[in-house]
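Weekly puzzle thread! Below is a chain. First person to post its structure in token form gets bragging rights.
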Amino acid sequence: MAMQVGNESGDGEVMVEMNTTPLIDVMLVLLVMLIFTIPMATQSLDIDLPGPDTGVAHPRPDLHKNKIVLTATGTILWNGQAVDMTQLKASLGDAVALRPEPELQFEPEAQASYNLSAHVLRSIKASGSTRFGFVGNEHYRSFGKQP
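Winning reply:
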């Protein structure tokens, strides 16, 4: 490859042609980035949407909720009643067997034992509950913040 320094006449004029090599390099980098990002944009998440409304009134599954509260003293409350781990596992099994499955709410108090919380969460997971949520976290929104 030869490099052209001036024009053919040799009169020393400045060459007015644009150097396109950096532009081509930038375009190639952008093309490679586009190739890598296309597969990321095509991934999808499957969502089960409800079917068409048949006009039949269905009972609302959120009317019945079960609430587990862990107190600072180590007591487990199932819907306000004190239970031990065996009774809790039996109640969880009964709740999971219901159709539609009632919502299960878990609310540990601020000073509740972490070990007890871990055991209860393990029991909830073992029961196969699919409608589970943490509640009462709004009490701790400003926890640890200095006024």
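Puzzle host: Confirmed. Bonus trivia for everyone else. The chain is about 35% helix and 15% strand.
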